[in-house]
Design goal:
This protein is an alpha+beta fold. 21% of the residues lie in helices and 28% in strands. It is built from twelve helices and 35 strands. The strands form six sheets. Strands 5, 6, 7, 8, 10, 11, 13, 14, 18 and 19 form a ten-stranded antiparallel β-sheet that branches. An eight-stranded parallel β-sheet has the order 27-26-25-22-21-20-29-28. The longest helix is centred in the C-terminal third of the chain and has 23 residues, at 605-627. The structure holds alpha-D-galactopyranose.
């Protein structure tokens, strides 16, 4: 095919290349982004386009990457751009763009050409490739970044956009990443949900055209859909087999991921901030930095992909990912808004009695003119309610200390109640449309974090609490409302920047908090799992997966979250949701970061004894659960038994949680559960733990088994209606 380039443009193009780079045009520079097992390979084409020529398991011989293209005889790509590393719009492109721009002179075209690239080692095993692209006509450039974490096979991709045009330009679309994948078929696993129904998976075969995963909610952005997804190549991947890509955006606001099965049957994935209602005006000489899109890839199934991702998350991403966490007693479901100092003093004693590390005081402790006695009032007025807490938080922190436990507190600092002093004083700080009727989500509105004054206010809430109570040991940061009637009084005519500036404002506040209080554990909560992503988790130590704590539901939800987030980040509380006995509920909550939200004083003596012992057991196992490798052994969606295993890196200690998830007559674990990840040559002893007082284990502890046996044949945990929840400790025998 002949491409006609007008003579004038050609001259400009060549001069630009001469100016910016020394490239061997004929050799077609190949730039592989390699990790331990995988490669994403870029190539500079003869016309200086940067294309993706390969995505998948890496080749032994790098020279062969440039041979790949010749093996494909797919239909014609008229644009020679379907595999662009960052697809521009308005010139030759006919597919979904990664970037779309209106220049200062009103022109909508963009063509990005290779200028240069460099690779830097940024940490041990972490490299950063940057590729500079420039438009030959306009003084407009994009740098693509690829941060490769070699050992964990994770890559983060983002772009930085800047220009030196004679006026402002408008970014109509500004994605973080653009992938191009070749396979025989593509199977998408996506998630949907709502309050108390988080992480519902759906798997479907991608068909031609575009499948979009997105949110436009602004805050609590994941209420209906999180950005995490999987794509299996050729056929649906299973736990241990198949090629699968996992991806997600490091952004807590509106995201958009387009999965386009193109005319050549290849998959283009374009992910970034959602450009919905957000054309972004960019001044000259200003960097627009997009958030990172992370991805990992495995040709050994979902389990391998998630273990690599967990390691990456703990080592590089989550705040204090390699550190410790606090077990706790929360009072939300125990008291709701109905408490006072006397009640809380009792709960502090119960915290000690139970044996957890911390008491977490939830919603309802603040506001005086409009007391926070229900969810209609008081958000924004972060002074202790004098009736409930006449001696303030300080006395509770002290009281906690006297009881030998730590004290934590709930805040929802981004929000405001229509009935609050804050709203009365600063109506201009509230997100609402001037002249339109207010519309509420959970009876509240969102503060305008695009406004620096609001950022100071929100920072001040936390800073004030810590300054007055230096021993405050934990924060639960909630975010219950979505944004309706998006309008920022502060931004004036620049409303289209709002969704982006809100998130930037939030991250600025969180960065300030972390600069001053680097280690205090904070739980990320959003009416459940309405905000869970790897941008937020750089500031938070854990998240609240769902308000739904019915343990049966949680088995399924925690299962899905576990593909993307390590157990150390998952706050699981024992509550009164569900019909299962306390043992079942506690076992399920142990599969992450254990907490309780029950009335301890109402527990029977044996229930209490069980909990106390279980907490001690958890303390002896938590390092394995938090830092070990997680193996999904039996999928609750595929049978009547769910089984999840955590194994330390030496493969000598582990714990396996097993549940009956179907109460049909005589249902039980009919088959052995096959273990994974063990050392076949080692011999292991299996001991049932978390036995209810007086209960006898059906498991023989005198017998030992080789890792070989446990992996090839397996072990029957003897799960049945009389033993619906069975936790087993595994130890190598010396
Ligand atoms: C949200 C949270 C709950 C609780 C309430 C308090 O719904 O998810 O855990 O903190 O707010 O109002």
């Amino acid at each position: 095919m002949i491409i006609k380039i007008p003579a004038l443009k050609m001259v400009v193009l060549i001069t630009t290349i001469k100016l910016f780079t020394v490239v061997n045009v004929l050799a077609q520079t190949v730039i592989p982004v390699e990790t331990a097992n995988n490669a994403m390979v870029l190539q500079v084409a003869k016309n200086q386009d940067v294309n993706i020529i390969y995505f998948g398991k890496k080749l032994i011989n790098q020279q062969e990457y440039s041979e790949i293209q010749r093996q494909y005889k797919q239909s014609e790509d008229y644009t020679l751009q379907l595999n662009s590393a960052y697809t521009s719009s308005g010139s030759r492109n006919l597919a979904e763009p990664a970037i779309s721009v209106t220049h200062a002179d009103g022109n909508n075209s963009l063509d990005l050409k290779y200028v240069s690239h460099q690779v830097k080692a940024v940490a041990n095993g972490v490299s950063l490739l940057s590729v500079l692209l420039k438009d030959p006509i306009y003084d407009f450039e994009v740098t693509l970044y690829y941060k490769a974490y070699y050992n964990s096979d994770v890559v983060e991709q983002w772009s930085v956009i800047r220009h030196r045009e004679k006026g402002n330009i408008t970014l109509q679309k500004f994605a973080s990443a653009n992938l191009h994948i070749r396979a025989r078929n593509y199977w998408l696993t996506q998630y949907h949900g709502d309050w108390a129904k988080e992480m519902q998976p759906e798997e479907s075969k991608l068909t031609h055209g575009i499948k979009t995963l997105d949110t436009k909610l602004g805050t609590r952005a994941n209420l209906f859909q999180p950005s995490v997804f999987m794509v299996s190549l050729d056929k649906p991947a299973t736990e241990d087999e198949g090629s699968v890509l996992y991806g997600g955006l490091e952004w807590s606001g509106n995201f958009r991921t387009d999965l386009e099965l193109d005319p050549q049957d290849n998959l283009r994935i374009i992910s970034g901030i959602n450009n919905y209602a957000s054309p972004y005006v960019l001044k000259p000489n200003t960097d627009f930095v997009t958030p990172a899109f992370w991805y990992t890839f495995s040709d050994h199934g979902k389990g391998d992909a998630s273990r690599k991702l967990h390691n990456w998350a703990r080592n590089y991403k989550i705040l204090d990912g390699k550190g410790s966490r606090l077990t706790l007693l929360n009072n939300w479901e125990a008291t709701y808004f109905d408490f006072n100092e006397t009640k809380l003093t009792e709960l502090l004693k119960d915290t000690k009695k139970l044996g957890v590390d911390l008491f977490l005081l939830d919603d309802g402790w603040f506001a005086n003119k409009y007391p926070r006695n229900n969810d209609h009032t008081g958000l924004g007025d972060w002074q202790e309610n004098k009736q409930k807490l006449p001696n303030g938080i300080a006395s509770l922190v002290k009281e906690a200390q006297q009881n030998g436990v730590k004290f934590g507190i709930w805040v929802e600092p981004e929000m405001v109640s229509p009935k609050s002093e804050l709203y009365e004083k600063h109506p201009d700080w509230v997100i609402k449309q001037p002249g339109r009727e207010e519309y509420y989500y959970r009876n509240q509105l969102v503060l305008d974090l695009a406004n620096p004054k609001v950022q100071d206010f929100v920072f001040g809430i936390l800073d004030g609490l810590f300054t007055r109570n230096p021993n405050l040991a934990y924060i639960k940061w909630d975010c219950n409302a979505v944004i309706y009637n998006a309008y920022s009084n502060y931004l004036g005519k620049a409303q289209s920047q709002f969704y982006v500036e809100y998130m930037r404002g939030l991250y600025k506040v969180l960065a300030r908090i972390r600069a001053k209080y680097p280690t205090v554990p904070m739980m990320l909560c959003s009416g459940g799992g309405g905000r869970v992503d790897y941008a937020a988790l750089q500031y938070f130590t854990e998240f609240w997966p769902s308000d739904n704590t019915d343990p049966l539901e949680r088995i399924f939800m925690q299962w899905e979250y576990s593909y993307f987030y390590p157990a150390i980040t998952s706050s699981n509380h024992v509550t009164d949701w569900g019909k299962q006995p306390i043992k079942f509920r506690t076992d399920v909550a142990m599969m992450g970061k254990l907490g309780f939200d029950i009335v301890v004083s109402r527990l029977s003596a044996t229930d209490l004894q069980f909990c106390q012992e279980a907490i001690k057991t958890y303390n002896s196992l938590k390092q394995i659960i938090w830092q070990g490798d997680q193996y999904r052994l039996a999928n609750p969606r595929e049978g009547s038994v769910a089984s999840m295993m955590y194994l330390d890196s030496a493969k000598t200690s582990g714990v396996i949680f097993n549940y009956l998830v179907n109460n049909r007559y005589d249902e039980k674990s009919r088959l052995p559960v096959q273990f994974k990840g063990l050392n076949p040559a080692l011999t292991y002893r299996l001991t049932e733990i978390n036995l209810y007082p007086g209960a006898k284990s059906s498991i023989e502890t005198t017998k030992v088994y080789t890792g070989d046996f446990l992996m090839k044949i397996g072990f029957n945990p003897i799960v049945n209606s009389g033993r619906p929840s069975v936790a087993i400790r595994l130890d190598a025998v010396k």
